Amino acid sequence: MIDETVEEIEQMQTHSSSVVAVKAAEALRELADEEFPTVEEFVRALERNSSALRRANPSHASLHNAQREIVDAVTEAEPDSVAAAQDELVAAVDRVTERVEEGKRRAAENAVDLFTDGTTVLTHDYSSTVLEAIELAAQDGAHLEVYVTEARPRYLGRKTARVLAGIDRIDPHLIVDSAAGHFLPEVDRVVTGMDCIVEDTLYNRIGTYPIAATAADVGVPMTVVGNGAKIIESGFAFENEIRSPSEVMREPAEGFTVENPAYDATPTALLDSVVTDERVIEY
What we know:
2 domains, seven-stranded mixed β-sheet, Rossmann fold, four-stranded mixed β-sheet, alpha/beta
């Protein structure tokens, strides 16, 4: 299960960073069912597998924080037997997954007020927290029009549009990334998720920065929604991921280079606000 989760994270089969953090944490449960001769062997296996999960996507702050918390909880408990260490692992995984899920849920609840009846929204990429907030607003009776960018090259927005199409009172429109500027003047607000915010920079799926810059130019406020654990003051060096050229074009690139970064950096000065499970930050 751990190897499969590593591959899934590497291939971006799971798009939401919160879901990635939970899946990676759950994968470590496998170690609670295996046999180890000593506590030291168990801890080494835990650290090795946790490191492999973190390396699968070095840009995910929530993934790194969750994995580090689990490993630290086991080692700092100083268990005197393998069984005790495995119990500590299970308890730590339970705490971390519950905290991530609860943080996502509360952030979505705090963002509901963004989606008042008749609001037109543009969103980018796939954020389970943003989708949950929209669904909650719709359940409260709000009718919303939502423009969704395709989020090339993996077309993550198509998944977002399909989910929105299944929610009553939501009118979704799928648009190509380059059409965002065309539709933004018709939009009341841009709302996206986030991979993380480090100091004064938002890191999110590639294409977020041009949307934020264009929204600022035409006077459309932009709000980012996510778990407060993704906001990092210091101590985390974001590592962008350069994806395979085959995601952009299948035929060989002859005489030119295909560049395919996974994320871009948006100055938080371009944002109107950030909504988390704990607070609302306004810029």
